[in-house]
């Protein structure tokens, strides 16, 4: 491949190849990607594409599934996909998932309007500020997770997700990511962790993925995830991140409603993208500019 290079993630758990970056013409690497997908039995190839690369993957038969707005230091990332195994490209619950989005949009949300515009107070300091925006009932407290929480968090995640694209059920994985680029926040009720979420921060691009959202069943519907999303955004803003996004389960009304109501815009769906629970699931993309 003279002149063409690509940075790949070969994801065996989710049976997909992710092209995070490429230089040179995409057509110079597409044949190699196909061969690799066949050799490794990967059902999906995903290409993160900056605007200056235009529709290069499209000319090689890829379809654009969505956009992460502001992903590259304010510039959009276009996500193109190809399905070497055709059956992987068929969405099994499209109607239900379209209805979830319709319900979000019907409330006048999900179009990127920001109902909680972050004010000047954000520039003042850290946790003090987050509390200013956070409205939780008295017996609940919101705080960053610390290493001593990892074991309980791993147990809660393993109870909440039978399968998950990353090994959240492993204490060692939580400790390692906590120590690097992932910020975990949690809500406690009388000392017991009842809700969790994280932001995976990419300081090179200035964007962060809000992910790993879970509320224990008895505490759902009380607005806890919405408060955690707000608190993560506050912290990201303090750290000068420009945008946040999520890739969330397309069939879950609660998680889509949470991001829609926090002013995120719906910008696409990645078909059969991750293995969660019973099999591959479609993931919706929701984005928000923080600055
Ligand atoms: C999705 C989940 C995290 C939501 O947590 P939560 O603390 O109950 O969410 P909130 O109370 O903050 O509610 C968020 C929004 O979802 C809505 N909602 C919550 N549960 C809902 C449900 N079962 N059906 C429809 N809407 C629901 C709320 O009304 C709210 O929307 P609104 O602002 O328009 O009123 C929780 O249901 C959960 O842990 N599910 C299992 C794990 C999971 O699938 N996580 C998502 C991975 S991508």
Integer-rounded radius of gyration: 19 Å
Can you tell me the CATH architecture of the largest domain? 3-Layer(aba) Sandwich
Shape: globular
Helices, by number, come to 8
Secondary structure layout:
Blueprint: E1 5-11, E2 16-23, H1 27-40, E3 44-49, H2 56-59, E4 63-72, E5 75-82, H3 94-106, H4 127-133, E6 140-144, H5 150-160, H6 171-178, E7 182-189, E8 192-202, E9 207-215, H7 224-238, E10 243-249, H8 253-261, E11 265-276, E12 279-289
Parallel strand pairs: 2-3, 9-10
Antiparallel strand pairs: 1-2, 3-5, 4-5, 6-7, 7-8, 8-9, 10-12, 11-12
Helix pairs in contact: 3-8, 4-7, 5-6
This protein binds coenzyme A.
Commentary on this structure:
The protein has 291 residues and is of the alpha+beta class. It has 2 domains: 5-89, 3-Layer(aba) Sandwich (Aminopeptidase), CATH 3.40.630; 94-289, Gcn5-related N-acetyltransferase (GNAT) (Aminopeptidase), CATH 3.40.630.30. It is built from 8 helices and 12 strands. The chain has helices at 27-40, 56-59, 94-106, 127-133, 150-160, 171-178, 224-238, 253-261, and strands at residues 5-11, 16-23, 44-49, 63-72, 75-82, 140-144, 182-189, 192-202, 207-215, 243-249, 265-276, 279-289. It has a 7-stranded mixed beta sheet, with helices on both faces. It has a 5-stranded mixed beta sheet with strand order 1-2-3-5-4, covered by helices on one side. A hairpin with a 2-residue loop joins strand 7 (182-189) and strand 8 (192-202). Helix 3 (94-106) packs parallel to helix 8 (253-261), helix 4 crosses helix 7 and helix 5 (150-160) crosses helix 6 (171-178). It starts with a strand and ends with a strand. Mean pLDDT is 91; it is low at 116-129. Bound molecules: coenzyme A. Residues 107, 160, 195, 213-215, 220-226, 248-249, 252-255, 257-258, 261 line the site of coenzyme A.
């Amino acid at each position: 491949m003279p002149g063409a290079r690509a940075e790949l993630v070969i994801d065996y758990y989710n049976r997909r190849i992710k092209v995070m970056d490429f230089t040179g013409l995409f057509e110079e690497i597409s044949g190699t990607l196909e061969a690799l997908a066949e050799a490794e039995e990967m059902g999906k190839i995903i290409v993160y594409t900056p605007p200056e690369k235009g529709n290069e993957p499209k000319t090689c038969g890829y379809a654009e599934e969505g956009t992460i707005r502001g992903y590259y230091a304010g510039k959009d990332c276009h996500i193109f996909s190809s399905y070497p195994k055709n059956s992987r490209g068929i969405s099994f619950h499209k109607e239900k998932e379209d209805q979830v989005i319709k319900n979000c949009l019907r409330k006048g949300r999900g179009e990127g309007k920001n109902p909680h515009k972050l004010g000047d107070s954000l520039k003042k300091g850290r946790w003090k500020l987050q509390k200013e925006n956070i409205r939780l009932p008295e017996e609940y407290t919101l705080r960053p997770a610390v290493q001593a929480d990892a074991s309980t968090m791993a147990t809660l995640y393993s109870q909440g997700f039978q399968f998950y694209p990353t090994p959240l059920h492993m204490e060692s994985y939580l400790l390692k990511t906590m120590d690097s680029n992932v910020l975990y926040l949690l809500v406690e009720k009388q000392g017991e962790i009842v809700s969790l979420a994280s932001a995976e921060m990419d300081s090179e691009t200035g964007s962060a993925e809000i992910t790993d959202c879970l509320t224990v069943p008895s505490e759902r519907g009380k607005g806890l995830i919405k408060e955690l999303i707000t608190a993560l955004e506050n912290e990201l803003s303090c750290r000068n991140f420009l945008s946040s996004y999520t890739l969330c389960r397309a069939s879950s009304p609660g998680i889509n409603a949470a991001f829609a109501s926090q002013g995120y815009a719906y910008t696409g769906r990645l078909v059969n993208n991750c293995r969660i629970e019973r099999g591959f699931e479609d993931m919706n993309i929701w984005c928000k500019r923080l600055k």
